[in-house]
């Protein structure tokens, strides 16, 4: 490829990255998710060197180098086990103490959940180790899930388990 094609190449790469970003945003919620225990986003971005050490350390490979090379979680790859390896691998001042809550977000079940169409499904409940997903019986309908927000730790295990991508993240300010 010649030099005069470079701007177009950069444009297409930018478009491609934007497509990936928007797909992840659509699947997970309104924004990318920083690693667990990350400080506030602007503080995180100011201090993160984009070295990628946390990405390499992540035992479930859910950390990726996202937009701008900053680490993001992709829950389509799996769940967070809260192993803290990302925190240990990082030499920058971007993480909070690990005795605090790892995240603010919680899982949220959307209207396209199969049970809303009266189709029985319990895939999400089966993968939730925190037992935060409860199924409630209703007369003449299949049991439907609700999330106990006080029990949900935001691990993301339920997101990939849903066959119709009905589970997203919700944030307290929404
Ligand atoms: S706590 Fe462990 S599993 Fe979770 S993002 Fe960090 S390295 Fe990955
Ligand atoms: S290890 Fe720390 S500085 Fe390096 S990319 Fe991860 S969060 Fe940023
Ligand atoms: S995010 Fe984790 S803890 Fe929360 S409901 Fe889903 S599987 Fe359970």
TrEMBL record:
Record-listed [4Fe-4S] cluster 3 binding positions: 152, 155, 158, 162
Residues the record lists as binding [4Fe-4S] cluster 2: 80, 83, 86, 90
Listed cofactors: [4Fe-4S] cluster
Residues covered by the 4Fe-4S ferredoxin-type domain: 39-68, 69-100, 143-172
CC per GO annotation: cytoplasm
Record's keyword terms, sorted: 4Fe-4S, Cytoplasm, Iron, Iron-sulfur, Metal-binding, Repeat
Compartments reported by the entry: Cytoplasm
Family to which the UniProt record says this protein belongs: Belongs to the NapF family.
Function, in words: Could be involved in the maturation of NapA, the catalytic subunit of the periplasmic nitrate reductase, before its export into the periplasm.
Full protein name: Ferredoxin-type protein NapF
């Amino acid at each position: 490829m010649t030099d005069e094609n470079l701007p177009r190449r950069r444009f297409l790469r930018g478009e491609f990255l934007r497509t990936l970003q928007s797909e992840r945003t659509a699947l997970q919620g309104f924004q990318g998710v920083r690693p667990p225990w990350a400080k506030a986003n602007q503080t995180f971005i100011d201090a993160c060197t984009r070295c990628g050490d946390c990405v390499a350390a992540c035992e479930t490979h859910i950390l990726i180098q996202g937009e701008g090379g900053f680490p993001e979680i992709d829950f389509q790859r799996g769940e967070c086990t809260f192993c803290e390896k990302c925190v240990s691998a990082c030499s920058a001042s971007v993480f909070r103490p690990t005795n605090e809550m790892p995240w603010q977000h919680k899982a949220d079940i959307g209207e396209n959940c199969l049970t809303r169409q009266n189709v029985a499904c319990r895939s999400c409940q089966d993968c939730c180790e925190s037992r935060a997903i409860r199924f409630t019986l209703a007369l003449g309908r299949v049991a439907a899930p609700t999330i106990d927000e006080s029990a949900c730790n935001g691990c993301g295990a339920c997101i990939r388990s849903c066959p119709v991508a009905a589970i997203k993240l919700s944030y307290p300010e929404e």
